[in-house]
Write a structure and sequence with these properties.
- It is globular and about 65 Å long.
- The chain is α+β, with helices and mostly antiparallel strands and 408 residues long.
- Strands 5, 6, 7, 8 and 9 form a five-stranded antiparallel sheet that branches. A four-stranded antiparallel sheet has the order 2-3-1-4.
- The protein contains twelve helices and nine strands.
- The chain has helices spanning 7-19, 24-36, 46-49, 83-101, 129-134, 174-188, 234-238, 264-268, 272-279, 316-319, 364-374, 403-406; strands at 69-77, 122-127, 165-171, 192-201, 253-262, 331-332, 335-341, 347-357, 381-391.
- It folds into two domains: 7-36; 46-406, no CATH class.
- Strand 7 and strand 8 (347-357) form a beta hairpin.
- Helix 4 runs antiparallel to helix 6 (174-188).
- Its cofactor is heme b.
- It catalyses: heme b + 2 H(+) = protoporphyrin IX + Fe(2+).
- Its EC number is 1.11.1.-.
Length: 408
């Protein structure tokens, strides 16, 4: 057998033969010829070959374009774990993530992602408020990591909220994403156990004739009014400055994570006109009801011939707009979820809401308070889980994520 045949190619070829039901005794020569041919490796598709660097100023998975598959997991440190335990864990996780995002196998690899490239895989790590007490680092806990306030629309499950550590995994291939999730879980070893885990998805890249804003399970475009990296104040809104406090959070961000169930049966009973009034945008193209295209700024003052506001007083785009919330803004980077049908035949589906900001007290909190007081969309959603995590800046080569905190 040719020495330069890779294990990945060999297994892929044998797997294909097995799937076709080939009988080895009858056609062993054919199989032998196929697995020993010195053919050039098959070129990966664009989706499979795309790599997002693990190392950098910021962690990947924040400004990275939306991926088709996502896994979120929170971990609690094991009883007796300490700062040293946490440092070793983050070192293992960072090493695994660096290899995975480069398309390389890790340790006792499960083989789940054989034949696939990195597929835009990102692995992002964060710390919950409880982490700092567990590791004796309470003095290093950021003020911005104070618990989120209670909101009247909350129906939170504490078992699916919060956590010492958080991992966000995203990829454009489902098997690549799952492979990373298993690698992270296995690398946790005895140091931490899973507190909760959630799975999400988005539209697959290339499924539309041109790149488009993603749609959520209500059929609405979600993320139209997001801050853009080209905005002059983008970094100021999304990332902690280099001289921020505490110092270990430099170039980091804060992630608000909410499991928001959509009451789809109730929503889908509304007419198209009623749905659009709730949101304040056309469903077909995301354009505001005040006119224009998807990217046209919403004109909250525009009225019809009778003097009625084109954007209703409780429309979602009005209650969430930065101009009605003191300029508060956040980068929304969600995944949709569907966890089956309950005993009443109602879909357990909705949005894994992930919002990034430099300070949640200036980003998420004021906007959610405004929504809580009178957003028409609130009648069709339910917040079922919530968490807030401090996500440090990216690791330089030779470093692990969180090293500046854990080895200060």
């Amino acid at each position: 057998m040719s020495s330069d045949i890779t294990r990945r190619r060999l297994l892929g070829t044998v797997g294909a033969a097995g799937a076709g039901g080939v009988v080895v005794g009858a056609s062993g020569g054919v199989i032998g010829a196929r697995v020993t041919q010195d053919d050039p490796p098959t070129t990966l598709t664009t989706v499979g070959s795309t790599t997002v660097p693990f190392h950098g100023k910021h962690q990947a998975g924040i400004t990275t374009p939306l991926q088709a598959r996502g896994h979120l997991a929170a971990f609690d440190l094991a009883p007796g774990a300490n700062r040293k335990t946490a440092a070793a864990l983050l070192r293992r996780w960072s090493t695994a993530a660096q290899k995975l995002t480069a398309g390389e196998p890790v340790g006792d690899d499960t083989g789940v992602a054989l034949d696939a490239g990195p597929s835009s895989l990102t692995v992002t790590f964060g710390f919950g408020s409880s982490f700092f007490d567990r590791t004796g680092l309470a003095r290093q806990r950021p003020e911005a990591l104070e618990p989120l306030p209670d909101f009247t629309s909350d129906a939170l499950d504490p078992k699916r909220s919060n956590g010492d550590l958080w991992v966000q995994i995203g990829a454009d291939d489902a098997l690549v994403a799952f492979h990373a999730l298993r690698a992270v879980q296995k690398a946790a070893g005895d140091a931490a156990r899973v507190r909760w885990q959630m799975n999400g998805f988005n539209r697959t890249p290339g499924a539309t004739k041109q790149p488009m804003t993603a749609r959520n399970l209500m059929g609405q475009m979600d993320g139209t009014n997001n801050p853009q990296p080209t905005d002059e104040d983008f970094d100021q809104r999304i990332f902690v400055p280099a001289d921020g406090d505490p110092a270990w959070m430099a170039h980091g961000s804060y992630a608000v994570v909410r499991r928001i169930r959509m009451l789809l049966d109730s929503w889908e009973r509304l007419s198209l006109d009623e749905q659009e009034k709730v949101i304040g945008r056309r469903k077909s193209d995301g354009a505001p009801l005040s006119g224009g295209t998807e990217t046209t700024p919403v004109d909250l003052d525009k009225t019809d011939a009778a003097g009625n506001a084109l954007i209703a007083a409780d429309a979602h785009v009005r209650t969430s707009a930065p101009e009605t919330n003191g300029g508060a803004a956040m980068l929304r980077r969600p995944f949709s979820f569907h966890d089956g049908i309950d005993e009443d035949g109602i879909p357990d589906a909705g949005l894994l809401f992930i919002a990034w900001q430099a300070d949640p007290l200036k980003g998420f909190v004021p906007v959610q308070r405004k929504l809580d007081r009178g957003d028409a969309l609130s009648a069709f959603i339910r917040h079922e889980a919530s968490a807030l995590f401090a996500v440090p800046g990216g690791a330089a080569k030779g470093e692990y994520v969180g090293q500046r905190l854990l080895e200060a």
